[in-house]
Amino acid sequence: MGRCATTRVIIGAVSPLSDDRLHVLERLLRALAPVRIAVSGGVDSMTLAILAGRVLGQRAAVLHAVSPAVPAAATQRVTEVAAQEAGRCA
């Protein structure tokens, strides 16, 4: 899998992540690689997972627990985003 171009990521619905902060986060991810990101299916963890995947490619792994305590909608969201990102980066 090749490295994907990083795009500006929006955190939540209100405030965009500034270019300076985005570059700091990208540098941090590269310094920590390889990484594993645990995702709940919510905006925060999914945003971090997408960014890590785009910056690090196969050096970023995404983990998601499936259990009765995890809403099916969260698992569906994680599955859909993972499929979209895999197609984007292939």
Could you characterize the architecture of this molecule?
The chain is of the alpha+beta class and 90 residues long. It has one domain (10-89). The protein is 51% helix and 13% strand. It contains three helices and four strands, in the order E-E-H-E-H-E-H. It has helices at 19-32, 43-56, 72-89; strands at residues 10-11, 15-16, 35-38, 60-63. The strands form two sheets. It has a two-stranded antiparallel sheet with strand order 1-2. The protein has a two-stranded parallel ribbon with strand order 3-4. Helix 2 runs parallel beside helix 3 (72-89). The longest helix is centred in the last third of the chain and has 18 residues, at 72-89. The chain starts with 9 loop residues before the first strand and ends with a helix. 17% of the residues are buried.
List the helices and strands and how they pair.
Elements: E1 10-11, E2 15-16, H1 19-32, E3 35-38, H2 43-56, E4 60-63, H3 72-89
Parallel strand pairs: 3-4
Antiparallel strand pairs: 1-2
Helix pairs in contact: 2-3
Q: What attributes characterize this protein structure?
A:
single chain, 13% strand, two-stranded antiparallel sheet, two-stranded parallel ribbon, alpha+beta, 90 residues, 3 helices
Helix content: 40-55%
Query: What letter string, H or E per element, gives the SSE order?
Result: EEHEHEH
Question: How many separate structural domains?
Answer: 1
Query: Numbering strands along the chain, what is their spatial order in the largest sheet?
Result: 1-2
Q: Strand pairing plus helix content: what structural class?
A: alpha+beta
Distance between the termini: 6 Å
Mean pLDDT equals 83
Runs with pLDDT <50, length 5+? 5-14
Apparent shape: globular
**C-alpha-based Rg, rounded:** 13 Å
- Count of DSSP E strands? 4
Q: What percent of residues are in strands?
A: 5-15%
